[in-house]
Amino acid sequence: MNHQHRRQSIRFHISYWMIILVGYGLLFYLLQSKPIESHSLFSLSFFFAFLIIADTRLGESLATGGRVMSSKCIVLSVIALFGAPTAALMEAVSALVRGLLLPGKSPRKAIFNSAMLGTAAGAAGLVYESLPWSNAFDSPLFIAPLAAAIVVHSLVNHVLLGAIISLDEHMPFQRVYRRSISWARLRHLLDLPFAAMVVLLYQQAGAWTLVLFLFLVLALYQSDRLYQRNREAHINSIAALTTALEADEPYTHGHSYRVAKYAVRIGKAMGMSDRELETLEYGGLLHDIGKIAITNEIICKPGRLTDSEFEVIKSHSTIGADIVEQIKFLSETTELVRHHHERPDGRGYPHGLTVEEISLGCAILNVCDAFDAMTSDRPYRKALTVEQAMEELVRFQGTQFDDRVVAVMLQLYHQGEFDSMREMLDGAVPMAPLATPALGVQEKSYVS
Asked: I need a labelling partner for 203 at 20 to 30 A (CA). Which of 47, 114, 292, 370 fits?
């Protein structure tokens, strides 16, 4: 195992330094081929300030799955107005400034981000300049090379970022790439019309027009923040309901919260996107909400349930799904709540789905639900150790538990994650889930 980790570490460091050398090499080549004109420095200072803002406050990840304003908008504008060398230099310096000066940032990642983003901007700029209509600002055709540039920027960004995170986290590249690319991220195509507006405004009146653009972005930002606050208020209400449901029974207190955290960690390791992880977390938090309709005599019964009592218990997944389905922004969790007790062998409930019909999220919740139940005290037995619970998961994989999920869980267990997670989560039960986007790969920067 040590030999394997050593080889992975060597591959990581070779890739890390190769990306840095290529990035700064490309930047040097671009600056040598086309030096920055001194008369544009005043205008560039405006763009640089906006780039810093876009990558910090206005560029933060939001609950809606995207960013109000990503730096691509500014980088595309700089490419169109000042050329590839300027855009590459600005991206590289911006990443370096943020990484080295802002608190809590890693110098190693700052240097990598600087090289990676400089490479992405430089490649996008070269593609833009090589295409026709790149200077046709009096025609809508100039949007075509601008669109090509944003595609190249995204691809270079995701490939380099995915490669380094794959090596750093010992995760297959396909999983990392699938996690960072999702349909939700097509929202970033909105950078294209924003960039076009910035270019046209600059052509008409100069750099000061960026101030007008800032008011529009701030309005969008405040609107999205208001949406988040309303959304969080609803989630807090549901979380409080879940906590109240578990408060009467000390043996299940914190169960839903732990299931949600376990599920997110496994989902992340299996390459789920940020949006899927968020849905999975809420599904874990709410998976037992239907038990609110079941009497405590059955929920808290210390002995074995009768067949009729077990049928009542089984109804909680359907009742919970019906509750969640009524809340519009939680509707995506309905399937997770309804089917988290389905089994690969078709002997689960409520619909007896087989492995091909059970979604990955439901399979993950099924395993996590059982794992937390086994590692928690019950009136009729003491908790199993984590090792004993893992043995039970292996024993019933393929029948009660999904093979893929058990394999990933075992991998995390052998890395020591579930022992430490169990210790950390015991006794720590907040009223609402943590913000899931922070658990995934944020676009643009090496933050894992």
From this structure: 114
